[in-house]
Each structure stands twice: as C-alpha cells, then as structure tokens.
C-alpha cells in the first residue's frame, strides 16, 4: 500500500464516522438489510443442500412457521410473559437494593468501609455459578430464579451508583449548600441528578446481566414455563425449529430492552439535562 | 485526619466486617436451623477446598475449565481483533458486519447451548464455542470503537511528519486504540468466564468447575459447591487483577494514555 493512498483513507474513515451521513432513509434500510439477506441465503442453501439432517438444521421457513404456530397457539406468549415477569421482579428487586446500597456507600464513609469488602468478594464470581447453590437453598422454580437474577444484577448497579455518587462534583454540593439547600434537597436536586448518568449505566448493565443469566437459569431450574426452558425442553424432541424460534424471540427481547427502554429513559433525563450527548 | 490513618481505619473496618459476616454465617450454620448438608460450616468448606487442592482434583477441574476459556478466548481474539480493525478501517466491512453483530449481541450465549449440543454433541466443543460466542462481541465492538476513537490530530501530525501507511497503522492507530482493545479483552474474559461455567453445567462434560458444582447438587454436597465457587472466584480475581492489570501497566498506563486506578 502506498503512503499517498493510506493516509487519506484513514482520514476519510474518521471524518466519515464523525459527520452524519447524507443518505436517504431507504438507502439506510437497504444497507442494513443486505447482510441479513446474505446470511439468510447462505443458511437456506446449507439447510437445503442436505449436508446436515434437516431436523438439526431446519430451513428458515420451518423456523418462521414454528414461530407463527407457537405464537398463534399461545404457547410462546405464555413462555415469554413468564420470563419477562421473572426478569421484571428480579431486576426491580436488584434496582431498589442496588441503588440504595450504592447511595449509602457513596455518601457515608462508614457504609463504604463496611460494604465494599463484601461486594468485592461477591462480584467476581459469575452469577450462574451460584445457580445450583440457590436451587439447593430455595428449591426448584420461581423463588430461586428470581433471587438469583436479583443477586446477579445488583452488583453492577451497586458499583455504578457508588461511583456516580462519588463523582458528583464537590463544587456543586458546596454551592447548593451555600445557597441554603438542606440535606434532603441536596440529595434530591443535586446528588441524584448528578449521579444519574452512572446509575443509568449501572441499571443498563444490570439488566443485560439479568437477561443473560435468566435464560441460563431457566434451563437449570426446571421452571414449567419460560423461554430458556422452552429451548432446553425442545432439545429432547430434536425440535430445532422451535429452539431457533426461541433464540430469535430472546434476541428480539434483548434488543427491545436496550433500544426501547433505556435509550428512551436516557433521552428524557440525562440527555435532556445536557449531561450526556 | 491524615490519609494514612484514614486508610488504616478503612482496612480495619473492612476486616471487621468480613470477620463479623463469617461469624454470623458460622453461627447460623452451627445453630442447626438449616440442615448441615445445605449450609456447611466454614472449617468444613476450607477442609474440602484443601483436600481438593491436595489430591489435585480441584486443580484438574480448574485446568479443564481454564483450557476451555483460553481456547475460546483465543479464537474470539483471533476473529474479533482483525475484524474489528477491518470494520474501523473500511466502510463496506463496517456496514456489512455491524448490523449482524448488533442483531446477535443481545442473544445471551447460554441460549445457544441446547442448539450447539444438538449440532456438536456434548463435550469440549460446545463449551469452547459458547465461550467464543460470548467473548467475540465485546472484543469486536471495542476494537471497532477504539479504531474510530483515535484522535484525528495524531493522524495528521504523524502524516505531516512523514509516516507512511504502515507506520501510521502500527505506531499511531493501534496504540491509540489499545485502551479500548484492552477494555474489550477484559470484558471478553468476564463474559467468557460466565459462559464457560454455564456451558459446563448444561453441556455436562465430565470435568470442569461448573460441572462439579452442578454435579455436587445431586449429592447435596454443599461444601464441594462452595469450595468450587471459591476456586472460580479466585481464578477470576487473579485474571482480572494480575493478568489484565499487568497488561495495562505494561502498555496503556506506561504510555500515559489512562490513569492507573487508585
């Protein structure tokens, strides 16, 4: 590669990334859809070529028809609502406890000294490793699933809230105090908004963690309904189309949690206040 | 109060908390409220841990788990790093790979376990591929954002000083992207570590820390489970602090690109 060619290329890619693309909406859609079409075509060719048995490597329309069939019969929605309910309860528990603990650790030196060793010991162990222990202690089913999800997603929330509260600028606190804010107003109008970008990051990480763990735990905990269980159960009957349909739904939920829930919350809070772009 | 005295007091309080927590656990375990098989005492866990280390069984399981993690991670680096670099440099590669990566990333790696079991059978292959899947996306996306985050001023400056394409790439872009790449490596290891434990539980191979925890449940051996948990935490801690910490110190911290953590 000659030097005259490489340098502008590097510059162009950086400049292109920074400036918004002047392109039509349809162009964007087509460009996004293109890689999926290629992969789908390759999948279809492999499935139809008969290299692998069709039972194990079903063509896409089998997956799509499984998706439609399961949705129409109400089985998939039932699995989905049960999974989402567990996620919601577990994550809500983690959010309440995690933010409270993180706040206490950020505001009080004593709480930090006491809690930090406990949190740092629990955090590096992957959550799924606790699963059999929780099953032993709390029995198979919903109780251990929800508790495990809460336990696992609490750690990133605690850490980020703690960092966020400590990152609130000293000068904001002083000026609010100088203007006569009492403790409660200080917490409500300065510390909480100041720490919110970090807290939101923590919640986001926690939710992603919860989602990843939940699917695995549902496979282990023998819950009667749930997407993880649906996939795991279908393996016994070699229903690869059902399994792939389940994976598609799991991916769609994960994407929706990220795009619809958190980007919206961010837009209404920290982005609107000008704390993040 | 002086910072040194402050630190002493923090350490003292932290130590006290751990002792108190241990004492509380011990008291509950000995009180007999819960069956001893479910809540073993701390000396029992410690002796199980020591016995596992001495007869080598715990180390053997740990080495199987580490082998799966490291092979999967190496594959993820071998694919993710070059692909991330290509995505950062060439627009068509980016617009082809980015939608696929964003569609696959939200699918938890463990969701693939049953399918991979059907395709590849029980055993090492499934665990390694799950690790690969889990570690690939952090590696790929961090490398990609690192490539894009290189300060354009540095590129211009190096170009003005007569750096050719190759020198620019190796001396400016790669070191410039390295904080992101190392962060990606760290994140990839964390994900891989979770994935391998889950995959070992579900894909029931005969060895591995995840597998003994799961297997111990059948026999109500809570002491084995807790001892293996300690081992898992220990290895994760060692990797996080020693391995990645020293990589960071040798590269980005030495180059003055990030501040060392206090």
Summarize the structure.
The complex is a heterodimer of chains A (277) and B (262). Chain A is mainly α and 277 residues long.
Task: Tell me the total number of β-strands of chain A.
Answer: 0
Q: Report the β-strand fraction of chain A as a percent range.
A: under 5%
The number of distinct helices of chain B, counting runs of at least 4 residues, comes to 10
- The coarse overall form of chain A would be globular
Q: What's the order of the H and E elements of chain B?
A: HHHHHHHHHH
* CATH architecture name of the largest domain in chain B: Orthogonal Bundle
Work out the helicity level of chain A: over 70%
Uncertain runs of chain B: none
Average residue pLDDT of chain A: 82
Oligomer: heterodimer
β content of chain B, as a range?
Answer: under 5%
CATH topology label of the largest domain in chain B: MetI-like fold
Radius of gyration of chain B, in Å, reads 23 Å
Q: Structural class of chain B, please? A: mainly alpha
Query: What is the CA-CA span between the terminal residues of chain B?
Result: 19 Å
CATH architecture label name of chain A: Orthogonal Bundle
3D architecture notes:
The complex is a heterodimer of chains A (about 280) and B (about 260). Chain A has about 280 residues and is mainly α. Chain A has a single domain (about 65-270), classed as MetI-like (MetI-like fold). Chain A is about 80% helix and about 0% strand. Mean pLDDT of chain A is about 80; it is low at about 1-20. By secondary structure, chain B is mainly alpha-helical. Chain B folds into two domains: about 1-35; about 35-255, MetI-like fold (Orthogonal Bundle). Chain B is flat and about 75 Å long. The chains are: A mainly alpha (about 280), B mainly alpha (about 260). Chains A and B meet through helix 1, helix 2, helix 5, helix 6 and helix 9 of A and helix 1, helix 4, helix 5, helix 7 and helix 8 of B.
């Amino acid at each position: 590669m000659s030097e005259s060619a490489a340098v502008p290329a590097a510059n162009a890619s950086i400049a292109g990334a920074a400036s918004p693309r002047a392109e039509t909406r349809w162009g964007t859609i087509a460009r996004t859809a293109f890689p999926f079409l290629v992969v789908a075509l390759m999948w279809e060719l492999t499935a139809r070529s008969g290299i692998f048995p069709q039972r194990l490597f079903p063509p896409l329309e089998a997956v799509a028809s499984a998706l439609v069939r399961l949705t129409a019969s109400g089985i998939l929605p039932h699995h989905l609502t049960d999974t989402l309910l567990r996620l919601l309860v577990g994550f809500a528990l983690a959010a309440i406890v995690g933010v409270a603990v993180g706040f206490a650790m950020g505001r009080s030196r004593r709480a930090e000294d006491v809690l930090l060793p406990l949190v740092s010991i629990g955090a590096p162990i992957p959550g799924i490793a606790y699963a059999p222990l929780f099953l032993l202690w709390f029995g198979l089913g919903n109780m251990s699933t929800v508790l495990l999800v809460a336990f696992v997603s609490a750690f990133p929330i605690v850490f980020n809230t703690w960092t966020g509260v400590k990152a609130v600028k000293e000068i904001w606190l002083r000026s609010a105090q100088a203007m006569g804010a009492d403790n409660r107003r200080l917490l409500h109008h300065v510390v909480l908004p100041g720490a919110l970008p970090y807290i939101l990051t923590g919640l986001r990480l926690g939710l992603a963690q919860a989602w990843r763990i939940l699917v695995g735990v549902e496979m282990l905990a023998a819950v009667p309904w749930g997407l993880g269980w649906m996939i795991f159960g279908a393996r016994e009957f070699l229903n690869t189309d059902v399994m792939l349909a389940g994976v598609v739904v799991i991916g769609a939920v994960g994407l929706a949690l990220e795009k619809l829930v958190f980007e919206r919350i961010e837009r209404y809070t920290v982005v609107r206040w000008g704390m993040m772009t | 109060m002086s910072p040194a005295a402050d630190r002493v007091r923090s350490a003292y309080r932290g130590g006290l908390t751990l002792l108190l927590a241990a004492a509380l656990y011990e008291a509950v375990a000995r009180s007999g409220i819960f069956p001893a098989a479910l809540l073993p005492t701390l000396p029992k866990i410690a002796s199980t841990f020591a016995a596992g280390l001495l007869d080598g069984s715990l180390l053997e399981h740990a080495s199987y788990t580490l082998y799966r993690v490291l092979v999967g991670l190496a594959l993820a680096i071998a694919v993710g790093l070059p692909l991330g670099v290509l995505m950062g440099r060439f627009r068509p590669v980016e617009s082809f790979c980015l939608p696929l990566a964003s569609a696959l990333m939200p699918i938890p790696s463990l969701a693939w376990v049953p399918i991979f079991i059907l395709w590849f059978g029980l055993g090492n292959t499934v665990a390694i591929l799950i690790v690969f899947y889990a570690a690939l996306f952090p590696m790929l996306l961090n490398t990609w954002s690192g490539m894009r985050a290189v300060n354009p001023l540095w590129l211009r400056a190096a170009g003005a000083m007569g750096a050719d394409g190759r020198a620019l790439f190796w001396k400016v872009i790669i070191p410039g992207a390295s904080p992101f790449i190392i962060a990606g490596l760290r994140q990839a290891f964390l994900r891989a570590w979770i994935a391998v434990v889950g995959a070992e539980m579900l894909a029931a191979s005969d060895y591995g820390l995840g597998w003994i925890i799961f297997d111990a449940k059948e026999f109500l051996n809570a002491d084995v489970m807790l001892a293996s948990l300690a081992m898992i935490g220990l290895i994760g801690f060692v990797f996080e602090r020693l391995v990645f910490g020293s990589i960071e110190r040798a590269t980005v911290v030495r180059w003055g690109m990030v501040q060392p953590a206090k």
